[in-house]
Amino acid sequence: MKKTSIAVLISGSGTNLQSIIDKMESGHLPVVVRCVISDRESALGLERARKHGISAYFVDPKPCGSRDAHEVAILEILDKHDVELVVLAGYMRLLTGRMIGRYRNRIINIHPALLPSFPGTDGYGDAWRYGVKVSGCTVHFVDEGCDTGPIILQRVNPIEPDDTFESFRERGLKIEHGVLPEAIRLYCEGRLRIEGRKVQILPKE
Ligand code: GRF
Question: What residue ranges line ligand 1, CB within 6 angstroms?
Fold first, then answer.
């Protein structure tokens, strides 16, 4: 199968990025990570990428002056690497119409809660504080809203009576590390069909 060129956008530790790299290197994911882009210079994920010989870029939002100009800078990098699919893996900025328009239905995001519950920047914290008995994570296509795009996959993470916030989050992250590559694989296999809000998963050929 032809490998899909992907870019991974991050803001932090990059454990989801690592799971993608590991599955790519072990031959379990038909992708090539062409580049990793972060809006934070200190993001550990940049180091992870470099360790694996992947081009890693810090694109500083400050000198860009606007969200739009920041995205122009990111789009230049994506063009340079001929990226087909953009994966947001802990990227903490909202995308503008410019980027979404250019990569319509080719940007996916992992969110650490069962959308539409607890959108925003602190899915784990919000779910934990609310006291839900079941949470989980969601991989979805990105549209103009905040965590509102069509849902590709969801996995549940039940909260046990003896959980602490840390144990809940740690288990959730492990689930994320499985489900994000799974969604990427479905994309690469051409098995995702968007019909309005619904994403149909086509059977394997
Ligand atoms: C993950 O929980 C992801 O769902 C959220 O940010 C976190 C990123 O973790 N959007 P990491 O950088 O992949 O370790």
Answer: 10, 12-16, 45, 89-90, 110-112, 173, 176
pLDDT at residue 1 above 90?
A: no
CA distance 204 to 200: 12
Summarised one tens digit per residue, pLDDT across range 135-173 is 999 999 999 999 999 999 999 999 999 999 999 999 999
All structural domains of the chain, each given as residue ranges with its CATH number in brackets, are 4-201 (3.40.50.170)
* Ligand 1 center to 197 CA (angstroms): 24
Closest CA to 140 of 159, 121, 162, 119: 119
For the CA of 137, the nearest atom of ligand 1: 4
- Residue 111 catalytic? yes
Q: Which helix (H) or strand (E) holds 171?
A: helix 165-188
Give the model confidence (pLDDT) of 97-114 as tens digits. Answer: 999 999 999 999 999 999
